[in-house]
Amino acid sequence: MKAFVRGWVNYFAASTMAKFVRRTDEWLRRRIRQIYWKQWKKVRTKFAALRKLGADDRVAWEWANTRKSYWHTANSWILSTSLTNDRLRNLGWTCLGDVYK
What we know:
Layout: H1 2-12, H2 18-39, H3 43-52, H4 57-64, H5 70-74, H6 77-82, H7 85-90, H8 96-100
Protein name: Group II intron maturase-specific domain-containing protein
Pfam family, one: GIIM
InterPro entries: Mat_intron_G2
């Protein structure tokens, strides 16, 4: 994915696309968070993963048991504060904004 992102950004870098890159980057990060949430299929797995990422026991248990959709949960504050942008970078995900700059 890194090669694809770099090539795509370098190809379109001639035009001013800062707003487009920012919006696409936000969408991609939300999609990545959704994939992680969906990957943790069981309540126990979600709870353990949230605890490992530093969430409080009570809050992690509440969100592990949520009935909200994957997409809605991906935009929740719990995943935004647990799976931060820096943490996603450390996991190997490339941000469009970093490549565009």
